[in-house]
Amino acid sequence: THDCALINLGSGAFVLAAQASGDDVPALLRSLSVSDARGAEWLLEGTVNGAGSALQWLAEQEGIDDLATRLPDWLEQVTEPPLFMNTVGGLGSPWWRQPGPPVFRPQDTCQSSAERAVAVVESIVFLLQYNLDCMSRHTAIGRLRVSGGLSRLDGLSQKLANLSKLPVERCEDTEASARGVAWLAAGRPADWLAPKDLPRFTPRPDRPLQNRYQHFVDLLQQYSAEFDDN
């Protein structure tokens, strides 16, 4: 449905949301989704450059060979991670900048690999949320559907639900993109089978996460501005 934003989490991440009109939205990408006799439909798109690639960067920096297997437990255990200025691959929407190198805040050599890993995951969630905040000024978003390799992390999906205050569904269909093309080719039939019984993450109150998000946005704005001035 039109109130569902789609999020794909791979080496990078992107968010797609239906737009009521084709009006330009500053700092976000816009594309024509469908155009036929019934009219045109538009999509807003936000991008996060550092998703899986940011975790790969961390694994190399910290020398973690089994990050994928450790992350689920770490996401359960770490409750007060630092903040990660996720500039891996540059900042995508809505910044579109190439600021300084990725850094942790505070810069503390005593931070554990677990704390830093959770900080990287939260930075991905925070960048997605900032794009959702931008989109929600132009279109109504009532729920989220995530797909891609990183979506298998329950902790990430739950944090996204808590921060966005929206239910998150996880699409485990690896052929989701191909099915979408087939649906368009079939003429967008209304009775097309939708995925059922998707794993669902219900928002929970999480004030510390909300506070970290606000602090993250403030710090990232400052950090990127430092390099604009240089």
UniProtKB/TrEMBL annotation:
Residues 6-186 form the Carbohydrate kinase FGGY C-terminal domain. GO terms for cellular component: cytosol. GO terms for molecular function: ATP binding; glycerol kinase activity. Keywords: ATP-binding, Kinase, Nucleotide-binding, Transferase. Its EC number is 2.7.1.30. GO terms for biological process: glycerol metabolic process. It is an enzyme of class 2 (transferase). SUPFAM superfamilies: Actin-like ATPase domain. Gene3D superfamilies: 3.30.420.40. Belongs to the FGGY kinase family. This is Glycerol kinase. It comes from hydrothermal vent metagenome.
